[in-house]
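Course exercise 7: structure representation. Students receive a sequence record and must write out the corresponding structure in token form. The form below is the worked example handed out in class, using Class I SAM-dependent methyltransferase (219 residues). Read each field label carefully; the graders check that inputs and outputs are placed in the correct fields and that the protein name is recorded exactly as given.

STUDENT ID: A-19
EXERCISE PROTEIN: Class I SAM-dependent methyltransferase
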Amino acid sequence: MSQLLRCPLCHTDCPSDEASWFYCDRRRFYLRCHHCYLIFVPSRFYLSPAREKSEYDLHDNQVYDPGYRRFLNRLYAPLVARLSSVARGLDFGCGPGPALAAMLREVGFTVALYDIFYAPDRSVLATKYDFITVTEVVEHLHNPYGELQTLWGCLEKNGVLAIMTKLALDATAFAGWHYKNDPTHICFFSRQTFEFLADTLNARLEFMADDVVFLTKRS
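STUDENT ANSWER:
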């Protein structure tokens, strides 16, 4: 008998039998929700917090590394172009080397930090912001619905939720996709998933680059 697994984004029950798998490899299998199109792995494949942090500790994203800054510029440049000079923001999931926050502060913006491991003070989520950046984070979230709803509530009217994540394609492309091989990556968003999310939040949706999505809170 097939077990039902709840989609972590829209909470639709998804059958977990082999016939319903979107893809599987030697380590884990992946389901695709037929309601919001999120691709996700069952919670039994999640790493423990200690193992998850040990994976992040291997990352060497230096604040002033020019290559890393060029990577972040795909989100930074279009975001800065639409912000007022007094805009206040939050870098959610900033990691141990918050380069994007540094880039934004260098041009005069006020930026708060949050990261479950490296800046875990959730009191910053009690404040309203003009923009929130979420770079290479949503694919790690155990509870994407809850976290994104929290962030949406932290945005001022006309505020921007600026997300960077690689977008999933079809099963053939997924099979050779390096992004799925990171054991900390457990949720994979597609264009259809972001369209669902925009409808749910009543947000204006813009695809700014292949891996950059803006959701703007309507006034």
